[in-house]
Design a protein that fits this description.
eight-stranded antiparallel β-barrel
């Protein structure tokens, strides 16, 4: 009798309204992201995702950067609605099921690296001379655009826990302080790329209320 009662309580519709999630796959790109999802109505929620970037540029981004151990620092923010589709098997849970999402996305990055370049250096006589040698340089990149997402979120272990997997089509425009000489234009995965590209996300979450 106790077992049956517990099972019914487990499957009963919950009252989840606010979920806080942490990005798992994004850690591979040195990105630390939290996402808050707030239920506005039964099929609609609003997501807010701040993120920080810190560390060396990961492999698979820029070949030149990978060889030199470039450093990346930065922050970003995305915001947008999520629409849960009817008819998905959600075990009676709120904030669960198949969904479509739209977001606006903003990123501000600062990259530091060593590169041979011309600049003025003081000579033995105290005068300045142009010399070509390795130098510590920095590059700032700003990215703005939109994201369209399809994903599935479900409760695991208990009504308090969520796992959220998604695939996204991103369309971003990037502006670099280095212009067309940017070090980060080698592929669609690179920080300075402007255009469309796909990403995958996996988030683990906890229902706060």
């Amino acid at each position: 009798m106790l077992t049956a009662t517990s099972a019914q309580a487990q499957l009963a519709p919950d009252s989840a309204r606010l979920v806080l999630k942490a990005g798992v796959l994004r850690l591979l790109s040195r990105t630390y992201q939290l996402e808050a999802e707030y239920r506005l109505a039964r099929p609609v929620s609003l997501t807010l995702a701040p993120r920080l970037l810190a560390g060396t540029v990961p492999s698979g981004i820029s070949p030149a950067a990978n060889e030199a151990g470039d450093k990346v620092r930065g922050y970003g923010l995305s915001l947008g609605p999520r629409f849960y589709l009817p008819g998905a098997d959600t075990e009676g849970a709120q904030l669960a099921g198949l969904y479509l999402g739209l977001k606006v996305d903003y990123q501000q990055l600062r990259l530091s690296y060593q590169r041979e370049a011309w600049a003025e250096d003081p000579g033995p006589d105290g005068l300045l001379y142009y010399t070509f040698r390795p130098r510590e340089l920095t590059e700032s990149i700003r990215r703005v655009g939109g994201v369209a997402t399809i994903g599935y979120q479900c409760q695991v272990f208990s009504p308090r826990f969520r796992i959220d997997a998604a695939a996204s089509l991103n369309r971003l425009s990037s502006t670099s302080s280095a212009g067309n000489d940017s070090r980060y234009l080698t592929s669609a995965n690179d920080y300075g790329y402007s255009g469309s590209f796909f990403t995958l996300d996996l988030n683990l979450g906890f229902v706060l209320k």
